[in-house]
Amino acid sequence: MNWSAPQRPVDYAEQALITAILEGVYPPGTTLPGERDLAVQLGVTRPTLREVLRRLERDGWLSVRQGKPTTINHIWHDGGLNVLSAIVRYSQHLPPDFILNLLKVRLVLAPAITCAAVERAAEAVVALLADYGSLAEEPQAYAAYDWTLQRTLTILSGNPIYTLILNGFTGFYETAARLYFEPPESRAVSREFYAGLLDAARRSDANAAEQVTRDTMQKSILLWQAVSDRSSPEEAER
Question: How far apart are CA 61 and CA 119, in angstroms?
């Protein structure tokens, strides 16, 4: 028999409030009901509610002011990495251009990450890419492989902040990547990337690794736009 622990009241209340904010029940600039009423609505005690509000204030979801109503923040202006991580967990509420914007961020970060990884640990990058040729020709295989590659490159870069940022997309990355890798041309571009990066790493040429990564990231944006155009907005963001 499989046993699952019941959700803690504080986790339930946090999930309920985040969902309400993302669904627009509480738009930016609006206020939450009073503490007593909100605790009753959520079915939790007031101490539990206060803990949840402290969490959400810490992460940028809302502003708590003594003696005044709690105000919902504009999360895209006031939120931090914890908000980003939470938004990814509630991917059904992502704005239509979220993945495209994420790819544009990757265009900025990925070349620097790859350059640093080859500069610091070229042999490890070679070992990482040694078996790319045996990848099964299916989206799931490419999604899993690409996640492992990108995450390991952040570790090899020597900058742990890169890894922390990428870890915030655990699970979501592969879900989106499976859709991205559906068209054969997306897999072909990645095979070219793996081959080019492997060649650069064998030569310990960090600049070449940076350039091949930048070129591939630019292509991935165009490919994702093509995938999105062929899919409904809901499917493209799932």
Answer: 39
Do residues 75 and 38 both lie within one domain? Answer: yes
CATH classification at residue 161: 1.20.120.530
The pair of structure tokens assigned to 207 is 């600049």
The answer on 102 and 73 residing in a single domain is: no
Query: How far is 99 from 113, CA to CA, in rounded Å?
Result: 20
Count of domains forming the chain: 2
- pLDDT tens for the chain, 238 residues: list them: 444 445 789 999 999 999 999 889 999 999 999 999 999 999 999 999 999 999 999 989 999 988 889 999 998 888 887 888 788 777 777 777 888 998 999 999 999 999 999 999 999 999 999 999 999 999 999 999 999 999 999 999 999 999 999 998 888 888 889 989 999 999 999 999 999 999 999 999 999 999 999 999 999 999 998 877 766 544 444 4
Beta-bridge partner residues of 62: 72
In contact, 80 and 73? CB cutoff 8 Å: no
Place of tokens 């609505």: 41
**Model pTM?**
0.78
Same domain, 56 and 109: no
- Angle, CA of 10, 163 and 216, to the nearest 5°: 125
Whose tokens are 């078996």? That residue is 131
Residue 69 and residue 103 in one domain: no
Q: Please give the residue range of the domain that contains residue 37.
A: 9-79
SS3 186: helix
Picking from 210, 117, 129, the residue whose alpha carbon sits closest to that of residue 158 is 117
**Nearest CA among 172, 180, 171, 182 for reference residue 217:** 180
